[in-house]
Every structure is written in structure tokens, then in C-alpha cells.
Design a protein that fits this description.
The chain has helices at residues 2-10, 14-20, 22-49, 51-64, 81-89, 109-118, 134-144, 163-173, 193-215, 231-236, 246-256, 277-298, 311-324, 330-341, 346-374, 390-412, 423-431, and strands spanning 68-74, 96-103, 124-128, 149-153, 157-159, 177-186, 226-230, 260-271. The protein is of the alpha/beta class. It has two domains: 2-43 and 312-431, no CATH class; 67-277, Spore Coat Polysaccharide Biosynthesis Protein SpsA, Chain A (Alpha-Beta Complex). Strands 3-2-1-4-7-6-8-5 form an eight-stranded mixed sheet, sandwiched between helices.
Length: 434
């Protein structure tokens, strides 16, 4: 069958190749291979030329010694806190305070955190007896924060030794930077196949994808797992709003104020990802609903002319809606096309599409290897063996979850009944159209 598919392929004309495989050649290859490759070829040498600017910013940082408030909201995350505390104590930049907010945990989190606080390893521990949700916990921490910069990090994460130092440098290099996203990588990739595949996905979408978006001035999200913010800006926008996808929401709020949003790939944080496909599906279902709720509803004003209209904000949201929402239906169109016009070649088309997307994923892996080399870090060689699974993972598994999430949010606003937030909090958010 593979040999027959190859013979079928080599006998196609250029127009036939484009007609049979237009989703790949006209959309995905252009957007995720050619564009990212061109931008990286510009970005990597440019970053190297900025070495002196980074060095000057680092010198300024250690001269001024601004206080950082590291805030950690979470529920039932006590088992992860000691490792996070350990990596913070090993940071090259020691001028920080650690504020942990326990959002109504029913495990040993309070006992673990109070012990760490007694030992001087947590500066401020706050216990919410009644769960208010992640946004509520983060805003509680913000009220107690004293630092000039706020670093929001998930409790199940830990950082490289120079992470705090490195994530602050963009603020000192450009006064218009409002928030900085750190490079989030998978900590528990050895735990399961699902985690191994997410390791590749994170390197593609975060390390490479967000670096490219940042370089183009189109970054639309600073990850809730690890991001840094100017405290004065957070206070001006009254912190985080309720909902799944609150990290993308707050990023757009900061963009709308006119501040820059950048990604710093050298500032590395490791987070634990779902290790089963069932848990992963629940996580992505929650994330995907947020695109409809925030980008299509709450922040739709970005798409229309107004006094605060900015083309880069428009392109940022339009790109997201176009490639994730509108083009989500391209596969339905493509499916009916091959059924209607090419039913005799379906097996060949499936095999060749799979081959093309494996090659594209391999090229994207090479992009991530290039970036790691430029940062003097070791490429993830062992992950290469999982690349053949990526077209199935992203092309089928994640697409089905995303499509279902879009339908449920568009028709039923399911994000407002998500157990991620307490029902009372979601009810108020729905009433206030947050």
C-alpha cells in the first residue's frame, strides 16, 4: 500500500498535488513551517547581536535589586510546594518574596505550607477556607504583594536556576513591556506516552510558536503556569478575571492598554502535565472553551474600529480565530471533497497526508533544537521517536476536543458551568459578562 501511494504521488502534476493536499500546502506548511522558519532565521542572529543589551539589563537588575513577588495560587497542590520552594532558594536572583494562597484545599496543603512558613521558606501563606477559584486566589495574593514585579507560577511547577533573573530582563530592556511569558516545558515527560507527546507539543507551540509570535509583536498569551507582570499594570486592570483561560484574558487586557507582551525563551519553568488522555482531554476542553468566551465575546472590541484600535491587536486575535476556529472546519470540507471527488484514492491520500505532517513535525522539532542550541541548552533528542505520533495527536485527538469545545461554548456557554470555578463565582461572572 505504501509503495502504491508513492507511485500515486510521483505521478501527480503540480496542480493535482495542490488540489489533493491543499490544507497542508496552502495553510499548515505556510503558517507553521515556512513562516516560523523565516522568522527564526531572523530572530536567532538578532538575539545573538543583543548579547550586550542583555548584559547591560542584567547589570542594571542587580544594581537596582527590585523586589519580585512570586505568587502561587492553588488547591490541593501541597505535595509540589517543597520542590518549588527549593528551586526558588537556588535562584541566581535572591530578591523575592513568596506568597502562597491555598484556595480551599481538602488535603495536607495547609499543614505543609504552614510548616514551610514557620521555617522561613514561605514569606506569606494565606488560607481561603471557602474555594473562590484560581483568579480569586491570585488576586488575594496580589493584595499582599510588595514587589515591583509579580511572577505568577503554578504550584506544580519548578524553575531553572536563572529563571527569575532572566524573565525580568525584557522589562529593563524596554519600558513599554507590560508582561513577559516564560518558557514552560514538561517536567514529567517520562511518566507516560501522553506526557511525552505533550513535551513535543510544548516545544513547538511555546518555545518556537510564542517566540515567533513575540518577535512579530503578536503574542496573545502569557502562560498561567509561569509569567511575569508589572505590578502597577495588574493593579490598574484589577488583576485576573474569572474563567478558564484567565491567562489569555489578562494578556489581552494588557495589550489593550498599549503595552507590549513578550516571550522570553531563556527563562525556563517546568510544569507537570496530565499523564492520561482522559485528564488531558478535560484540560484541553476547558482551555478551548476559553477562546470563544474571551476572544470572540469578551474582547471582540479588538476586532472593530475604536479610539483604542491597534492593528497588531486586531491581527493577534484575528489570527487566533482564523486558524483555530474558522479553519477548524476545513477538515470537514476536505473530508467531503475526497469522498466526493477522490473516493478511489482515499487510502493513498491518508498515507501521504500522514507522511507530509510527520515531515512538518520533524522540521518543527528541528526549529526547537536550533533554539535550544542558541540558548546553550541540549536538544530533546529522545523525543524524536514520538514525532510519528504527532499527526494523530494534533490532527485527530486535539481537533476533536477543540471542535466539541467550540460547539458547546458557542451554543451553551459551558465555560460558566465548568467545575474549575465555584458555581457562585461563575454565576456572577456570567451575569457581569466577564
Amino acid at each position: 500500500m505504501i509503495e502504491q501511494a508513492f507511485v500515486f504521488f510521483i505521478n501527480l502534476s503540480g496542480w493535482q498535488l495542490l488540489g489533493y493536499f491543499w490544507p497542508f500546502f496552502m495553510i499548515d506548511m505556510v503558517r507553521y513551517v515556512l513562516l516560523e522558519g523565516v522568522v527564526l532565521l531572523q530572530y536567532l542572529p538578532q538575539r545573538k547581536r543583543k548579547a550586550a543589551l542583555y548584559a547591560a539589563a542584567r547589570q542594571q537588575l542587580f544594581s537596582q535589586k527590585p523586589l519580585i513577588s512570586v505568587i502561587v495560587p492553588g488547591k490541593n497542590e501541597g505535595r509540589y510546594i517543597p520542590k518549588l520552594v527549593q528551586t526558588l532558594r537556588q535562584q541566581s536572583y535572591p530578591f523575592y518574596e513568596l506568597i502562597v494562597v491555598d484556595d480551599g484545599s481538602d488535603d495536607a496543603t495547609p499543614e505543609i505550607c504552614r510548616e514551610l512558613e514557620r521555617n522561613g521558606l514561605i514569606d506569606c501563606f494565606i488560607r481561603n477556607e471557602i474555594r473562590g477559584g484560581k483568579a480569586s486566589a491570585a488576586n488575594t495574593a496580589l493584595q499582599f504583594a510588595k514587589g515591583r514585579y509579580i511572577v505568577h507560577i503554578d504550584a506544580d511547577s519548578h524553575m531553572e536556576r536563572d529563571a527569575l533573573e532572566t524573565i525580568l530582563l525584557p522589562f529593563l530592556m524596554d519600558a513599554d513591556v507590560g508582561c513577559v511569558g516564560g518558557d514552560v516545558r514538561v517536567a514529567n515527560y517520562e511518566d507516560s506516552f501522553a506526557a511525552q507527546i505533550q513535551r513535543i507539543e510544548y516545544s513547538k507551540s511555546i518555545m518556537v510558536g510564542r517566540t515567533v509570535a513575540s518577535h512579530l509583536g503578536l503574542l496573545r498569551i502569557v502562560s498561567g503556569a509561569y509569567g511575569a507582570f508589572r505590578r502597577d499594570i495588574l493593579e490598574a486592570i484589577h488583576g485576573w478575571d474569572v474563567g478558564p483561560g484567565l491567562d489569555g484574558d489578562i494578556t489581552l487586557k494588557i495589550r489593550k492598554m498599549g503595552f507590549k507582551v513578550v516571550h522570553e525563551p531563556a527563562s525556563v519553568c517546568y510544569t507537570n502535565v496530565p499523564t492520561s488522555y482522559t485528564k488531558l482531554a478535560k484540560q484541553r476542553y476547558r482551555w478551548d472553551k476559553s477562546m470563544i468566551r474571551f476572544r470572540l465575546r469578551k474582547h471582540r472590541d479588538i476586532l472593530w474600529p475604536s479610539e483604542s484600535f491597534r492593528w497588531r491587536n486586531f491581527i493577534t486575535v484575528a489570527d487566533n480565530l482564523f486558524f483555530n476556529l474558522l479553519l477548524d472546519i476545513k477538515w470537514v470540507i476536505y473530508f467531503f471533497q475526497i469522498i466526493q471527488l477522490s473516493s478511489g484514492y482515499i487510502a493513498f491520500l491518508i498515507i501521504l497526508n500522514y507522511f507530509f505532517y510527520v515531515c512538518a513535525n520533524l522540521v518543527q522539532w528541528l526549529f526547537s533544537a536550533m533554539m535550544l542550541r542558541s540558548l546553550n541548552q541540549k536538544p530533546m533528542y529522545q523525543s524524536v521517536m514520538f514525532i510519528p505520533l504527532m499527526p494523530i495527536y494534533t490532527g485527530t485527538y486535539l481537533r476533536l476536543i477543540r471542535t466539541f469545545a467550540y460547539v458547546m461554548e458557542l451554543l451553551h456557554k459551558r465555560s460558566y458551568v465548568d467545575r474549575w470555578n465555584p458555581w457562585k463565582v461563575s454565576k456572577i461572572a456570567k451575569r457581569n459578562k466577564l
